[in-house]
Amino acid sequence: MGKKTKTNAAVAPIFRNRADKGLTRAADQHESETDSEASDTDKNPYNLNPVARGHLKGLLHDIKSNMAAELAKHMARIRESLEDLTRRTLAVEYKMDDISTTTAIQELCGQGNVQQRITRSTSG
Questions:
Q1: Which of 119, 92, 116, 120 shows the shortest CA–CA distance to 106?
Q2: How far apart are CA 73 and CA 38, in angstroms?
Q3: Model pLDDT, residue 58
Q4: Tell me: the pLDDT tens digits for 15-27?
Q5: pLDDT lower than 50: segments of the chain
């Protein structure tokens, strides 16, 4: 009996080390599988099949295109309104109805010669 106890006591650490190594390998393998699943989940968070993902990507592209077109329309309207407002402001301020948008913008920026034209037209 004494020999068995000594043998078991001597052998037990070897098995324990092997078991620890086996658990470590299993844990490492589980972590690597979890990492690969996480990267797949990042790409496809709702686990959709490829056909459904394709349809959703197409719909998203269409929505983005429509939104860009609508935004461009609104920006063009805003730009036209600002140009019209600029022309009207200068027409009222300088009593000029035939002022162009470029001239109006230059005048508002301090680079125009509208004031000189008005001075010449009123003095002459």
A1: 116
A2: 41
A3: 92
A4: 555 555 555 555 5
A5: 1, 124
Enter the tokens of residue 107: 């005048």
Evaluate whether 84 touches 93 at the Cβ level (below 8 Å): no
63 and 120 part of one domain: yes
Instruction: Report the C-alpha gap between 15 and 2 in whole angstroms.
Output: 20
Full 3-state SS string of 58-90: HHHHHHHHHHHHHHHHHHHHHHHHHHHHHHHHH
Q: In terms of residue numbers, what domain contains 99?
A: 49-124
Provide the CA 71 distance to its chain's centre, in angstroms: 16
State whether 91 and 114 are in the same domain: yes
User: Measured in whole angstroms, how far is the alpha carbon of residue 15 from the centre of its chain?
Assistant: 55
Q: Are 113 and 96 in contact (CB under 8 A)?
A: no
